[in-house]
Amino acid sequence: MSQGKGGRKNRGQHHNKDKINVGDNGREVLESIDENNPVISQFRVYAADLDAKHDRYERIFKVNRDVAIESKRIIFLLHTIDKESKRDIVLAGAKLRLDSVAKKLFRDIALELDGQDAYQFHRAYRAGLEEYVEALTFYEYLENGGCTRDWTKLEEALTYYTTVKPSESSSETIDLEEKPVTKMTRMLVTPTDYIMGMADLTGELMRKCINNLAVGDISSCYHTCNFVRQMYIAFLGYTSACSHEMNKKVFTLKQSLAKMEKTCYTIKVRGSEIPKHMLADVAIRGTAEDYTTEDDEGYQGF
Fold first, then answer.
1. 134 annotated to bind ligand
2. How far is residue 265 from each of residues 31, 203, 260, 279, measured CA to CA in Å?
3. Is 290 among the domain residues?
4. Quick one: which residues bind Mg(2+) (predicted)?
5. Which residues span the domain enclosing 256?
6. Is 204 annotated as a binding residue?
């Protein structure tokens, strides 16, 4: 047992890429390697390419965390709308912050992806992109009462243009008529990224429904519930052939919809006998019960 613990304790010491631990036979082999050998030189190139790829992946992942954190803060800001008088101010502030994320953070990711195979780095920024879609669609729902933007519009918003000056070289004659070139860089936004973000939106809409009930805005509860129900119907058709992760999100969507429907049922049946300031507490206690899954329209996707 002591050897096992010691092995785990010293496990991190073997990851220093500048120092290679080898035995006597291995040391002789290393000393006999010809650095000018074309095979060795080619593997040095491979190692440099892999190091550059890993470094780029880490830089993108760090920006991805900043995107996710800022998107969560925007969602929290949007949840503070509890009065009509605060609506315009909060929406304007959220819009500025959403535009700032698109113009700064996503631009940094797009520049890192320029000239690269974006699919190799997709996992590095996918979580932040989905969180941003959730914040963006939540903002659009509060502003327009629905989601009016599709994934192609988001991809257009995350496309950037930079003006590149003509290359200047002292050994060549500069063409005075040569005009600056506009270079385009864009984020890779897949339809699945957008749909996964919208699936997360339903959780925020469920919280918004309860918050509206707490302030006495009963009509908004029905509107939100109907909107989420339409989303659930649409997702039932989409999940016929998709990943396990999407099925989990749809299952969570179904749970959120059930809570909202139970809240609206409580309002409709018992709304006349419960004071308005107590409706939210009664609805929360009702939705806190264990949720049992049932077959829905014969669908067995999850």
1. yes
2. 79, 19, 9, 11
3. no
4. 134, 204
5. 190-268
6. yes
